[in-house]
Amino acid sequence: MPVIIRDEGPADIAAIHRVVEAAFRQSVEADLVDRLRADGDSVISLVAEEDGKIVGHILFSPMSAPFPALGLAPVSVLPERQHAGIGSKLIREGLKRAEREGCRAVFVLGEPEYYRRFGFDPALAAGFASAYAGPYLMALPLNGEMPAEKGGIDYAPAFAALG
C-alpha cells in the first residue's frame, strides 16, 4: 500500500505523539509538537499514513526572521519504517506547501549530511544570529536565493523549553 502524505487531523494527535516519541526514543520532541500545536505555532503539520496507520509526521513552525520563514522540526518516522523514503516525502511535501504559503526560507537544525539532499546549507544560515547558530543550523531559500544574508532568527517559544 502506498504512503499517503496528508494534513494532520484532530483524530491523529495521539498517534502523532506515539510516532514522534518512538522515532526519538524519548518524549521531549513529542511534547514539543504538542506544545507547538497548543500555542498555535503549528503552521504545517503533515502525517504519513500507510495502511491506515500513521507512520510519520513533520511540523513547520513560524520563525522570527527578517523575512517570512519557517522552522522545520521535528520530522519523525517510526523506527521500523525509517530508511524507506517516508521522511523525504514528508520534507518535500512540507517544503512545497511552505513555498505556496509565501514562506521565503526554511531553517532546520539537524544533520547536514541528511538535509543537504533537500538543498539546506549551513553556509546560508551562517550570517544569522541564533541560540542554535553553528554547523547544524541550515537554511533553504524557497525561491532560489536567500532574501537576506544576515539578521536575527528565533524559533517559536516552545523550543526554549528544550534547553
TrEMBL record:
Listed name of the protein: N-acetyltransferase
Cross-referenced Pfam families: Acetyltransf_1 (PF00583)
GO molecular function ontology, one term from the record: acyltransferase activity, transferring groups other than amino-acyl groups
UniProtKB keywords: Transferase
Residues annotated as signal peptide: none
Location of the N-acetyltransferase domain: 3-143
